[in-house]
Write a structure and sequence with these properties.
- It contains eleven helices and eight strands.
- By secondary structure, the protein is of the alpha/beta class.
- The protein folds into two domains: 226 residues, TIM Barrel, CATH 3.20.20; 28 residues.
- Helix 6 runs parallel beside helix 8.
- It starts with 13 loop residues before the first helix and ends in an 11-residue tail after the last helix.
- Bound molecules: 3-methyl-2-oxobutanoic acid.
- 3-methyl-2-oxobutanoic acid binds next to strand 6.
């Protein structure tokens, strides 16, 4: 996004994002299809095709069963709709458990879509995977803090950074990802003190979700922020509109007009 305008005038690159740290907050939203991607084109810096699509698009309980095929299909759709934001494909659970699989799957993401980067969850223990990807010319967005792909092994969605030891551990995670070549890091579900400490500890941008104001940018899931996902609303989600309510009310109007033979009127008839 240009520094003095709300509109993104030209293609956002990895260099654009790097230069925004400490200068201008980075905006990122998720998208899963061309229609919404087109709405977001020119209005955000980055689009993430998040594996959250497994929940909000496919209706599953969690993100764990998302597949590479799904992520590629939706990323192709988003790339068809949005030419300007930096596009990131979220690597699904199980697609980067070792360097060989990670490079093979991320290479497929680059070859079959126009994504400029992939995202993987994990801190210092996954830095070697980030290194393998960046060594093979694949740009990586890290993801630390609350990591939805660890839901079952962690026993729930747990907020991180509640004490000094955990803050220190998160800072180590961020530094390890930076050293491995990640171009930015998503910091999810952490206390704001922890997010600030992480942001100050690295030279690459941090993009927060449920991490307070002090990260270098913010990301929200589109169906949460526009009030379409009704299963639950975490504290950090601001609903900028009541999407589900709007659709329901308008659908009621349509149904009533059809039932009463008011639609299609002359105006909508050949
Ligand atoms: O899958 C997703 O949408 C994400 C965001 C919450 C960052 O990982």
């Amino acid at each position: 996004m240009s520094i003095h305008s709300d509109k993104v005038a030209k293609k956002v690159t990895l260099t654009t994002i790097s230069k925004m740290k400490g200068v201008e907050p980075i905006t990122m939203v998720t998208a899963y299809d061309a229609l919404f991607a087109k709405l977001f084109n020119g209005n955000v810096d980055m689009i993430l095709i998040g594996d959250s699509l497994n929940m909000s698009f496919l209706g599953k309980e969690d993100t764990l069963s998302a597949t590479m095929d799904q992520m590629i299909y939706h990323t192709q759709a988003v790339c068809n709709g949005a030419s300007l934001p930096l596009i990131v494909l979220d690597m699904p659970f199980g697609s980067y458990t070792n360097e060989v699989d990670a490079v093979k799957n991320a290479t497929r993401a680059y070859q079959e879509t126009n994504a400029q980067a992939v995202k993987i969850e994990g801190g210092k223990e996954r830095a070697y995977i980030v290194k393998a990807l960046t060594n093979n010319s694949i740009a990586v967005l890290g993801h630390i803090g609350l990591m939805p792909q660890f839901l079952r092994s962690d026993g729930g969605y747990n907020i991180r950074g509640k004490d000094k030891t955990d803050i220190a551990s998160l800072v180590e995670d961020a530094r390890a990802l930076e050293s491995a070549g990640a171009f930015a890091i998503v910091v999810e579900g952490v206390k704001s003190d922890a997010a600030r400490a992480i942001t100050e500890a690295v030279n690459i941008p941090t993009i927060g979700i449920g991490a307070g104001l002090d990260t270098d940018g913010q990301v929200l899931v589109w169906s949460d922020m526009f009030g379409f996902f009704e299963s639950f609303k975490p504290k950090f989600v601001k609903q900028y509109c009541q999407g589900a309510k709007i659709i329901r009310e308008n659908l009621e109007e349509y149904t009533s007009e059809v039932k009463n033979r008011n639609f299609p009127s002359e105006e909508y008839t050949y």
